[in-house]
Automatic annotation (TrEMBL):
Top-level taxon in the UniProt lineage: Eukaryota
Protein name, UniProt field: Uncharacterized protein
Length: 301
């Protein structure tokens, strides 16, 4: 772990880290559409059955289409290339990619093995972690650009200050999401509280922190390629501001979101089949143009 002899020094460190994280969120979109299209192009260029093709396919991080894996890798690079990396060269070996399992149904069974049993793992998500000692107290800093978390989350083993505790990740007219992280042995339990239509749903994710995750490309990035939900999101320093998402199985529509002239979020759902039509719907065309402009793509999309 990186040692901080005083709380003041640690807080200054967090401020610098926060600025780098905000710049990364603002500068790099979350994009799982581009890598899917590239994957599809490779599949169509050969004759093997899909599962044979997928088994032998070598996933890679595309600079123009970054999932949580690519965003986490880029964040580490940006930290090390910053003044913080110069002042704290030990970050080069201390920062690491950590794997995360989402919506774990049986926490006790999953945590009964370290590392987790391959029978239970999916490794859906990847984030950045940094083990710290603050005035002799152990903890970990979680950095998660893939889930648009705009603060360095401090998770102290004793849950005392500067432990982050519950915080609001995002709040829109439709849904409010809150997170909390707690260290439990070799894992960080990441609690999610989601409120939608005055109904609250809670679940827990797990982050494995005993070892760095070395298979982030061959496991998580490759798994992402066959995940049905595709997303393109542009963020500012605090939150998503524009983008699109779709479910490739059953839903058959794009949801575009962007900000209107007064900064209010607008959502428009457009059926896939519309893009094969004459495209005469003025509302759809206006939404496509506004969204394309705000995600910095060609407005003639």
């Amino acid at each position: 772990p990186v040692e901080f002899p005083s709380l003041v020094i640690f807080q200054i460190f967090l401020q610098e880290l926060h600025a780098i994280l905000e710049a990364e969120l603002e500068g790099r979109p979350y994009n799982t559409i581009g890598n899917f299209l590239e994957f599809y192009k490779h599949f169509r260029s050969q004759d093997a059955p899909f599962w044979e093709f997928y088994h032998h396919y070598d996933a890679e991080i595309l600079p123009e289409s970054l999932s949580c894996v690519g965003l986490a890798c880029c964040l580490i690079d940006s930290i090390m290339n910053s003044s913080l990396g110069f002042v704290c060269p030990e970050l080069k070996t201390a920062l690491f990619l950590a794997s995360s399992e989402e919506m774990v149904m049986d926490i006790d069974v999953y945590c009964s093995c370290s590392p987790p049993s391959s029978a239970f793992v999916v490794k859906e998500h990847v984030l950045v972690a940094l083990k710290v000692l603050v005035e002799g107290r152990s903890g970990i800093v979680i950095l998660d650009p893939g889930y648009h978390v705009n603060i360095p989350v401090v998770v102290m083993s004793d849950c005392m200050f500067p432990h982050t505790g519950w915080f609001v990740l995002s709040e829109t007219p439709k849904v409010k999401r809150e997170y909390r992280y707690v260290i439990e042995g070799d894992f960080v339990q990441w609690a999610v509280r989601e409120t939608r239509n005055n109904k609250t749903k809670c679940w827990k994710n797990l982050v494995y922190i005993k070892q760095r995750f070395l298979s982030h490309i061959s496991v998580s990035e490759k798994r992402n390629l066959v995940f049905n939900f595709r997303t393109l999101v542009v963020r500012n320093k605090r939150e998503p501001v524009a983008g699109m998402y779709c479910n490739l199985e059953g839903d058959e529509k794009f949801t575009l979101f962007y900000q209107d002239n007064v900064g209010k979020r607008v959502e428009v759902k457009i059926p896939f089949k519309y893009f094969y039509s004459e495209r005469t719907n003025n509302q759809f065309e206006s939404a496509i143009a506004s969204c394309a402009t705000q995600v910095r793509y060609n407005a003639t999309l």
